[in-house]
Design goal:
two-stranded antiparallel sheet; 284 residues; Rossmann fold; alpha/beta; 11 helices
Length: 284
């Protein structure tokens, strides 16, 4: 996982990096016994992620003693800074912020891929100049999974352009992903079926569990041996997540999502599954 000892971890991504329960940054920081800064945000796209990487470097000055880990996300997202805050509604094809007319006219999978490939390539060069150690991976396959259900495809008359783009940015598009390493690119078979056995039809969630995050890290860094104490904490966090959801099912007796929980319950879930607390992050 690391070429030499590091003193800080900086994590960037979407909800696969910062969610309602423990994610991979906590596990890495716990295992390496270092403080970490989690700049992940639910619904964030690769433009937000890029902004956070630059801001974090300007604020904290990345050095060779730092570990920077970036979980890039689905390309079909549009982040906006509006009225003093970031709006990160997630996938453009399933979100509820942008009007359907806007999506129909302006949302183009190839356009998003063009934009984000260039952006990720620029960030790669930027981080090289900081001398920090960094790793890139992704939530899903960037050049195939445009809307996570794969209903939106590249227009047939753009296939030549698409292929040239894939060849040009092959070193970026081939980065490992959660969808591949954890769920073999079939989230319904390897994620939702197992959740249904535990929760029935009352609850499902397409985000990795704490154990999923650990399994991903093990696949990503096969030569790294995680400490038994870290593994134990992840298992406890995972058990607490399961226990929490089962208790809510008994309480509600109806289908629900994490987002429908009241703020106090969301906070309770987060604190009960916490493995290691992040350092404060100033986000502009």
């Amino acid at each position: 996982m690391i070429d030499h000892p590091v003193k800080r971890l900086f994590a960037f991504g979407c909800s696969f990096t910062n969610y309602h329960w423990a994610c991979w940054p906590e596990i890495v920081a716990e295992d390496l016994e270092i403080p970490f800064y989690n700049y992940g945000k639910s619904g964030a796209g690769n433009q937000f992620i890029t902004n956070m990487i630059i801001q974090a470097d300007l604020q904290h000055k990345f050095t060779e003693d730092d570990l920077v880990m970036v979980c890039w996300t689905n390309v079909s997202r549009e982040d906006k800074w509006v009225n003093g805050a970031w709006t990160t509604p997630g996938n453009i094809y399933t979100q509820t912020v942008y009007h359907s007319d806007y999506v129909k006219k302006w949302a183009d999978p190839l356009g998003y891929l063009l934009r984000d490939c260039a952006t990720i390539s620029l960030v790669n060069g930027y981080l090289q100049n900081t001398n920090c150690q960094y790793h890139f991976f992704s939530m899903c396959d960037l050049h195939h999974t445009f809307d996570l259900n794969e209903n939106n495809k590249i227009n047939d008359n753009m296939n030549d352009v698409y292929q040239r783009l894939c060849d040009m940015y092959n070193h970026i598009l081939m980065m490992p992903s959660f969808y591949d390493l954890v769920w073999h690119n079939d989230i319904h078979e390897y994620k939702f079926k197992s959740m249904k056995q535990i929760y029935g039809d009352y609850f499902d969630d397409g985000h990795p569990s704490p154990l999923d995050h650990l399994n991903f890290l093990r696949c990503l860094f096969p030569q790294h041996c995680f400490k038994e104490s870290t593994i134990k904490k992840v298992k406890i966090s995972n058990d607490r997540l399961t226990y929490f959801i089962l208790n809510r099912i008994k309480q509600f007796r109806k289908r629900f999502t994490v987002y429908e929980l009241k703020d106090d319950l969301q906070h309770k879930l987060f604190t009960e599954t916490l493995i290691k607390e992040s350092q404060p992050c100033v986000i502009v």
